[in-house]
From TrEMBL:
Entries under Gene3D superfamilies matching the protein: NAD(P)-binding Rossmann-like Domain
Alphabetical list of SUPFAM superfamilies matching this protein: NAD(P)-binding Rossmann-fold domains
Cited InterPro entries: NAD(P)-bd_dom_sf, SDR_fam
Pfam families according to UniProt: adh_short
PANTHER family linked: PHOSPHATIDYLINOSITOL-GLYCAN BIOSYNTHESIS CLASS F PROTEIN-RELATED (PTHR43157), WW DOMAIN-CONTAINING OXIDOREDUCTASE-LIKE PROTEIN (PTHR43157:SF73)
Name of the protein: Retinol dehydrogenase 13
Length: 320
């Protein structure tokens, strides 16, 4: 029996609501889509591989074929290792989707070999943090028009291990460490979610809550790069040792689902969760000056320029 706790027991329905989940063709993202679909939501799967997303969509629809009440699943291409792709995806959503009630920044890459995104950022920081930062900023005007809304960012307990090195985010001056780069990107996830809540408050925007979370240690494809960065067979070995303590993807999705739909946390914002309970993240993740510094750096790196997501007007959908 896996040793874990934490479940979303809410029976809240999402009929008439729209949710976007990034990187959800597998792992806990796929389970999150399944849950929202069963609650009646229109779920937009933002995935880099439309082929893999199609297979996941078919599987979910098959699993739910006997349910009478369910939502709708739509696939849209979004490769988080390309800011161009993030911009194209966001434009398509803004042009076509009248509302966005839930955004789950779920996609992640862990401990990959040294590499860079299309825009030249270290793969994990660029994919896990910067792309989700830009995505959230671009969608915010529509999210503002869709309140009550929730923005959920999937982090990891790994955020506690290392710091963000602002002088060398892309490992140009120091030796690359896959574990450190992952930790840096996951600390950025928590700081981003916290500062987003602060900024929404400063801008007198009500009705949008933010959440970051550690989903647990889960049997997913996240360890796919371990054999390359550690040693051949390490993924299997680690999986074997940790197996009794690991959650299934369905169990691992519970905290994301809790933060997205549960009435119990409907009046909370800017907090960090684990096992469906708000808990303290690492001390570094509670530092507002640090969070502001990351925000400014991220805005500069993704080239937000004069665009202010908090004051920008919702462009509205394009009518045919
Ligand atoms: N599993 C754990 O134990 C654990 C622990 C702590 C935190 N987390 C976090 O949980 C989240 C989900 O991970 P998981 O465990 O479900 O892992 P997973 O099974 O590997 O799923 C990760 C998802 O992210 C997608 N993705 C990766 N790079 C992408 C990109 N450039 N553009 C778009 N999508 C991309 C993957 O798509 P492809 O299939 O196309 O690569 C996949 O759908 C991650 O943020 C991870 O850091 C997981």
């Amino acid at each position: 029996m896996p040793l874990f706790s934490g479940r979303c027991y809410s029976t809240a329905k999402l009929v008439g609501k729209t949710a976007i989940v990034t990187g959800c063709n597998t792992g806990i993202g796929k389970e999150t889509v399944l849950d929202f679909y069963k609650r009646g939501a229109k779920v937009i799967m933002a995935c880099r591989s439309t082929e893999k997303a199609e297979a996941a969509k078919n599987e979910i629809e098959q699993r739910c074929k006997d349910l009478t009440e369910k939502g709708d699943i739509v696939i849209e291409k979004c490769d988080l290792s390309s800011l161009k792709s993030v911009r194209e995806f966001s434009k398509k959503i803004l042009d076509t989707e009248p509302q966005i009630n839930i955004l789950v920044n779920n996609a992640g890459v862990m401990m990959c070999p040294k590499g860079f995104t299309e825009d030249g950022f270290e793969t994990q920081f660029g994919t896990n943090h910067l792309a989700h930062f830009l995505l959230t900023m671009l969608l915010l005007p529509r999210i503002k028009s869709s309140t009550p809304a929730r923005i959920v960012t999937v982090s990891s307990k790994a955020h506690t291990r290392y710091d963000i090195n602002f002088d060398d985010l892309n490992y140009e001056k120091r030796q690359y460490s896959a574990a450190e780069a992952y930790s840096q990107s996951k600390l950025a996830n928590v700081l981003f979610s916290r500062e987003l809540a602060n900024k929404l408050k400063e801008n007198n925007i009500d009705g949008i809550n933010t959440y970051s979370l550690h989903p647990g240690v889960i049997r997913t494809e996240l360890g796919r790069h371990l054999d390359k960065v550690l040693f051949k067979g390490s993924r299997r070995m680690i999986g074997f040792v940790l197996y009794p303590f690991m959650k299934s993807p369905e169990q691992g999705a519970q905290t994301s689902i809790y933060c997205s739909v549960d009435e119990k946390c409907a009046n909370e914002t800017g907090l960090y969760y684990s096992d469906c309970v708000a808990t303290n993240p690492d001390r570094k993740a509670l530092n507002d000056e640090y969070a502001k510094k990351l925000w400014e750096k991220s805005a500069e790196l993704v080239k937000l320029g004069d665009y202010n997501p908090f004051t920008a007007t919702d462009p509205g959908v394009i009518k045919n």
